[in-house]
Write a structure and sequence with these properties.
It contains eight helices and no strands. By secondary structure, it is mostly helical. The chain has a single domain, classed as Homeodomain-like (Arc Repressor Mutant, subunit A, Orthogonal Bundle), CATH 1.10.10.60. The longest helix is centred in the first third of the chain and has 20 residues, at 23-42.
Length: 134
């Protein structure tokens, strides 16, 4: 059993070390990741982009992308997507007269209620409260 423990320990150390030794590659991947998000949300979309779609476009597994982002920023892929959605929603709430439903659909949400729940969980306010306070 101890040989298996040693092997697993080495494998884990090797996997973790790759995140510390590839700073320039990681910065490039983070830039490409952010570019993919921006390009996606600047285009007409019918649904929210998934972590798997981003990972595929970057040529890596979903799990690896999540680990990489978590090591670089402290947030996983889904958290990055949600943060980007919330920032776009805040911008739309403050700069347009679109209804909450129209904003939700424009961001790719199929159900506006899910958008409102996500917005409230991330900001502590409903979209309507946020708009009225600002």
């Amino acid at each position: 059993m101890s040989q298996l423990d040693v092997l697993l320990n080495y494998a884990e150390r090797f996997y973790t070390r790759q995140f510390r030794t590839r700073n320039s590659v990681e910065a490039d991947i983070l830039t490409r990741f952010q570019s993919i998000l921006q390009t996606y949300f600047d285009s007409d979309k019918e649904k929210i982009i998934t972590a798997k779609e981003i990972a595929t476009e970057l040529g890596m597994s979903t799990h690896y992308l999540g680990d990489l982002l978590r090591n670089l920023t402290g947030m996983n892929t889904q958290q990055h997507i949600h943060a980007y959605l919330i920032e776009r929603a805040k911008s739309l709430l403050l700069t347009t007269n679109l209804t909450i439903n129209e904003i939700a659909f424009s961001l790719g949400f199929e159900y506006p209620q899910y958008f409102s729940r996500l917005f409230k969980s991330k900001t502590g306010q409903t979209p309507v409260e946020f708009r009225n306070m600002n």
